[in-house]
Amino acid sequence: MHFAIVALTGLFVSQNTPTSENIPFETPQVRADATRVGFRIEFAGVSSDLAINSATVMPGETLTIAADANLFAVSGVTENIDGEWHWKAPDTPGHHELYFQRNGETALLNVFVLTPFENGRDDDLSGYRIGEYNPNPLRGLERYVPPTGFIHMEPGMEDIQIAPHFRLGQFICKQQPGFENVFLMVDPSMLLKLETLLEAANDRGWEADTFFVMSGFRTPFYNAAIGNPTTSSRHLFGDAADIYIDHDQDGVMDDLDGDGRITRDDAVALASLASEIAEADPSNWPNGGIGIYNANAVHGPFVHIDARGYRARW
Fold first, then answer.
1. Which fold has domain 2-113?
2. CB 3.0–4.6 Å: which of 23, 68, 175, 256 could bond 266 by disulfide?
3. Close Cβ partners of 243 (under 8 Å, ≥ 6 residues apart)
4. What is the pTM assigned to this prediction?
């Protein structure tokens, strides 16, 4: 069964309706308190039941989404082929929203159409320094291939919810503060891991509305500028975050182990919880790294989480 729509205002397509008619429909809403829904969305190698997800696609290319749910698209060209949704991106970069509905529940998929980037030729995008990626991927792994595009975070986009408890602006590189044209990458596998860890942390009694993201995406330019010699840091690829719980907003990790002090042991507690999830819930924990870092004169202890595609611990 095939459906095709050009969604200019807000159009609804049902997998179960034997028609290709465009049906005007009121924009669905994700419940404000919803972290997960009762169905999964599969896209770009990710399988997620989060109520809010994010994906990227190059201009004019097609994003394939497997979901046993109806789709509401406010833009782009959408069709259902053999039970899979195919959303063709517009030819210009930007932010788009796809809503999936099933049994009264709604899940949002943010889709960011990327600004193209050619490694080795483009040193910057609209004046925002990018630098150069290593053209030789680490061990030949696909996840280390230089990116071909970046999310353009224009003024006002920093508050876009890219996951139930995380905003786009939490992951920007720390370079060129105040610069209007900001570019970054944010990987959906990492967001799934952060949401899963945040849920588990709250279940353990460590109250947190979100994690403080000390470092998210880094450009190769910024990574070199801070003296980091590696060209394979996962921060360069948008699937790493250095995090800590700071519910009391004092600028450092909360006292997770209850000993009245802020030490490496608090980072160990959070990292140990992440390791437990990795063993017990692999469907919500794509393979990747977990690292523990001590406090220094600049920052307190923190934990590194990434989705590099293979297990790493330090």
1. Immunoglobulin-like (2.60.40)
2. 256
3. 194, 211, 212, 213, 214, 270, 302, 303, 304, 305
4. 0.92
Q: Considering the domain 117-313 in this protein, what is its CATH number?
A: 3.30.1380
Neighbour tally for 206: CB within 10 Å: 19
Find the radius of gyration of the CA atoms of the chain: 20
Counting Cβ atoms within 10 Å, is residue 99 exposed (0-12), middle (13-18) or buried (19+)? buried
- Residue 122's identity, in one-letter code, is D
Could you report the per-residue pLDDT of 188-221, keeping only the tens digit for each?
A: 999 999 999 999 999 999 999 999 999 999 999 9
**Given the DSSP bridges, would you call strands 128-129 and 166-167 parallel, antiparallel or unpaired?**
unpaired
Domain ranges, ordered by start, for the chain: 2-113, 117-313
45-58 burial by CB neighbour count: b if 16+ within 10 A, else e?
ebebbbbbbbbbbe
